[in-house]
Every structure is written in structure tokens, then in C-alpha cells.
């Protein structure tokens, strides 16, 4: 059952569960958040941005072309503020910082840092809590590249807990999910009013946090 965090006549904010793709991945008939929304609404729903399949949290959709254009423009101008919560391996020495590494996609679908051919990519972070072997972060992506947060933290030497793609698989397979959650998004609706939508941490996310403490 879909969990709607915010809805008006123009915009939808959905609480996406981890493990459900935002849009169909390979076959159009595969279940996705978009396909579930299409069944629920009698009109076309427009994709605004995406979350990785393994990521949970708040994601926006538009109900008409005008709202789609408005939200896309806000994303393009970097007016939308996104806040993620992530648990990473190891202890970060700094309380906060920026990761400015250009990324590009390779044939395997894997993203990697490429200082010559990569696209601009900027992420900032702030330490929330340190555990014995892990650090809990708030993460703010200022650009919107695929796998941005995961690749940046991996290249910082602190891969996201449970990340099979960018972490050491023998270590990561011991965790039941990717510990990355889209916690909050801030934007303006079609009337120009500021909106701040938050997604609570899922039960499995908080359970893993408790075990890592």
C-alpha cells in the first residue's frame, strides 16, 4: 500500500520503501512506484526525480505537465534541498565536509570518479553520531548524479553500510538493507509556497542502527 506524505492538486510526495524501483527497470510490466501510482490515478503521473531501488524515503511526482516543468526547473536551478540519513563504515575524523568529485557512468552501470570526463558532482555531509565502528551522517547532495552519495562516500573511504555495489561484498552481505534514507525534501509548490516534506526512518533502518550501536 502506498504511503502518501503530501498531496495537492499538482504534486505528490510518496514514502518509497527500500527494494521497490521508482520506475520500471528493464521490463515495463515490472512493479515500480510509478506503476503503482498509475493504477491508483486515472491520469498520467510524471516522474520528477528518482531514488535508487535500495534507497527508502521521500520522492516527488507531478500530476500534470505544468507541475512537472516547475519542479524540474527547481531541480535544475538547485533550489530543491534534499537531506539524506546514512550510516557509513568507519569513523569520520571531521564533523562536516564537502565531497567534490566529478562522476561518470561506465558500461557496467557503475558510477566512478573521473577527473577528466566526469560531470560536476558535489555532496556535503554532517556527522550526527559516532558508534564504535560506524558513523551516522546527514548528507546533502547539491547535484543529482546517479548513485552520487554512495560513490562519494565510498571514495571518501567510508562506504554506506549494506551497499553491495560499492562496498566490500563479504562485509556488506551481513546487513539486510542499504543504510541510506531520503529523509527530507524542500521545494515550492505551484503557488510559490515553501513545502518541507519528511519521511520517518523505516523500522528496518532503525533496527540496523540499534544493532550497530
Protein described:
There is one protein chain. The protein is of the alpha+beta class and 213 residues long. It has five helices and twelve strands. The chain has helices at residues 33-40, 65-76, 148-155, 169-172, 203-212; strands at 4-7, 11-16, 46-47, 56-62, 81-89, 96-100, 103-105, 111-113, 122-130, 134-141, 180-188, 194-198. The strands form two sheets. Strands 1, 2, 3, 4, 5, 6, 9, 10, 11 and 12 form a ten-stranded mixed beta sheet that branches. Strands 7-8 form a two-stranded antiparallel ribbon. It is globular, with a radius of gyration of 17 Å. It starts with a strand and ends with a helix.
Our Rg estimate from Cα atoms comes to 17 Å
Would you list the SSEs in sequence order as H and E? EEHEEHEEEEEEHHEEH
Low-confidence segments, given as residue ranges, are none
The main pleated sheet reads as: 10 strands, mixed
Shape: globular
State the end-to-end CA separation: 31 Å
- Tally of alpha and pi helices: 5
Please count the beta strands (DSSP E, at least 2 residues each). Answer: 12
Label the structural class. Answer: alpha+beta
Keywords:
213 residues, 10-stranded mixed sheet, 5 helices, alpha+beta, single chain, 20% helix
Q: Can you describe this structure in just a few lines?
A:
The chain has helices at residues 33-40, 65-76, 148-155, 169-172, 203-212; strands at residues 4-7, 11-16, 46-47, 56-62, 81-89, 96-100, 103-105, 111-113, 122-130, 134-141, 180-188, 194-198. It contains 5 helices and 12 strands.
Amino acid at each position: 500500500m502506498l504511503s502518501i506524505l503530501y498531496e495537492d492538486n499538482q504534486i505528490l510526495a510518496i514514502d518509497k520503501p527500500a527494494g521497490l524501483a521508482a520506475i520500471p527497470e528493464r521490463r515495463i510490466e515490472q512493479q515500480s512506484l510509478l506503476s503503482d501510482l498509475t493504477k491508483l490515478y486515472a491520469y498520467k503521473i510524471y516522474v520528477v526525480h528518482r531514488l535508487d531501488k535500495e534507497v527508502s524515503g521521500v520522492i516527488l511526482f507531478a500530476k500534470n505537465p505544468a507541475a512537472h516543468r516547475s519542479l524540474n526547473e527547481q531541480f535544475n536551478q538547485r533550489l530543491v534541498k534534499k537531506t539524506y540519513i546514512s550510516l557509513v563504515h568507519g569513523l569520520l575524523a571531521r564533523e562536516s565536509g564537502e565531497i567534490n568529485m566529478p562522476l561518470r557512468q561506465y558500461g557496467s552501470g557503475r558510477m566512478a570518479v573521473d577527473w577528466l570526463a566526469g560531470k560536476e558532482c558535489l555532496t556535503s555531509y554532517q556527522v550526527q553520531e559516532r558508534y564504535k565502528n560506524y558513523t551516522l551522517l546527514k548528507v546533502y547532495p547539491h547535484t543529482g548524479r546517479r548513485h552520487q552519495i554512495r560513490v562519494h562516500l565510498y571514495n571518501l573511504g567510508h562506504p554506506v553500510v549494506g551497499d553491495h555495489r560499492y562496498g566490500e561484498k563479504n562485509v556488506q552481505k551481513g546487513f539486510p538493507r542499504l543504510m541510506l534514507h531520503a529523509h527530507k525534501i524542500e521545494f515550492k509548490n505551484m503557488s510559490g509556497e515553501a513545502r518541507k516534506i519528511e519521511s520517518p526512518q523505516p523500522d528496518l533502518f532503525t533496527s540496523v542502527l540499534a544493532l550497530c550501536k
